[in-house]
Amino acid sequence: MAMKSFWKSILLYLGLPAASYAQFYSNFTETGGLTTRSFTNQPSLEIQKTRWQASFFSIQAEVLANTAAMRVSNLRNINANFLRQNVLGTSELSSGQSRINLRGPSLAFRLNPKLSMAIGTSTRFHTNYENVDGRLLSEIGEIVKVPQQYPYVMSKESMHMNAAVFSEINLSTSYLLFKNSVHSITGGLSLKYINGIANSAINVKELTGTIRRINSYLTALNDATGGVTTRTSGTLFGDLNTNNLFKLNKASFGASFGLQYIYYGEGKEAKFTVGFSVSDIGTIRYKADSTYSKSYNVEISNGYGLYFNNNFNNSTFSQTTKVFDKYPDFFSKTSSSSQTYALGLPTTLNIWSDYKFDQHFYTRLTAIVNLRQKDAAAMTLYGNSLICLSPRWEKGKFGISLPVMFRSISGLNAGLEARVGQLILGSNSIFNSAIGKSKQLDFFIGISFPQK
């Protein structure tokens, strides 16, 4: 089965292209991270040494799955086989996420000794999928069938996939609530205008059926029952051009807030910092396309089969209804929708502490906790909670950090982050994916303007 366009859309959905978003943060205190950190860590926006700071751009990206086994070298061959073998697998149900955050120029400036502000823009790609049957997708997508055991029986499997693209204009502010020679407390608030660009989701409910092999290049789904609901707004990834990124579609608003305490001890620089923020409060608004937003009952009777050959060849992830409508005897439509709907932002609680051991050595402990419930109806985006310990060394324009991170989906990962002047780049999983097979691949890069 060729299905080239379908598989390309699935690859993009899972966030696997070269510019394939985690809630990244800079571990460095002086250069390169301030204006971008202000979007999720508002109290850190306080500017003391300069009048303003600015970031030119940053790119942050990740893909992770409980079934993944990825190496850095795999990125040379991003194709359907990579997705099947290295991300989804075929031995167990797969759950994971991928995220990309493209941030444009942002500016932070000090209005007075107590009040600082920042403004910036970003475009975000966020995907979640839960309990996806990699064996089913593999059967649909293989041109030459990989040796498997047949028949393959599915029993009341429920899965969902959700992909969203949206842009933001973000205004952040921080206010120095209290400060003396030893302590300071800063509060921060961020408000953002959100423009929903595109969203696609597929929900499969209690799918029961059997996949049987017909010959060396053909299998079929038989004796199947269940339900499937699709939802599409815009053309996922097809609408990503400069005009659509700034075009006003369905506007909504979001907010974040936080608080930070700093202990200075006997010096002028922070000795110990602790704080928290709640990020991404709010929703994204989209309008469903009735052509591709439908619900179906699935019923493939004994003696009939949905053949996995070229059925999905002219379909994409956003337009699977083309296939379902082609076989009304197997997929009976129950409803369609053209309503405006709200998709919940991936709200998180962020907690951090930072300790300075001596002039050049620090350590930072960060926890990010997902506050959204995993929604079977795919009406909310959510993240994967993590805890990260990041020792680092800084001197002048140079710095290096070694983050060690644990996440429930991808387990334990070790990475490397470096700062050279105004450039910051790194990965939270480079050691795992370079030495062995990792359940997580990620990278980030950012460039700031010299401070004034």
Record the SSE blueprint:
Elements: H1 4-13, H2 34-37, E1 52-65, H3 80-88, E2 93-110, E3 115-133, H4 134-141, E4 152-179, E5 183-215, E6 218-233, H5 242-246, E7 250-263, E8 272-287, E9 294-300, E10 306-307, H6 321-326, E11 331-336, E12 340-344, E13 348-356, E14 361-370, E15 386-395, E16 398-401, E17 404-407, E18 411-414, E19 416-420, E20 423-427, H7 430-435, E21 440-448
Antiparallel strand pairs: 1-2, 1-21, 2-3, 3-4, 4-5, 5-6, 5-7, 6-9, 6-10, 7-8, 8-12, 8-13, 9-11, 13-14, 14-15, 15-16, 15-17, 16-19, 17-18, 19-20, 20-21
Summarize the structure.
By secondary structure, this protein is mainly beta. It has helices at residues 4-13, 34-37, 80-88, 134-141, 242-246, 321-326, 430-435; strands spanning 52-65, 93-110, 115-133, 152-179, 183-215, 218-233, 250-263, 272-287, 294-300, 306-307, 331-336, 340-344, 348-356, 361-370, 386-395, 398-401, 404-407, 411-414, 416-420, 423-427, 440-448. The protein has a single domain, classed as Porin (Beta Barrel), CATH 2.40.160.
Word description of this protein:
The protein is mainly beta and 452 residues long. The protein has one domain: Porin (Beta Barrel). The protein contains seven helices and 21 strands. The protein is elongated. Mean pLDDT is 83; it is low at 1-25 and 29-36.
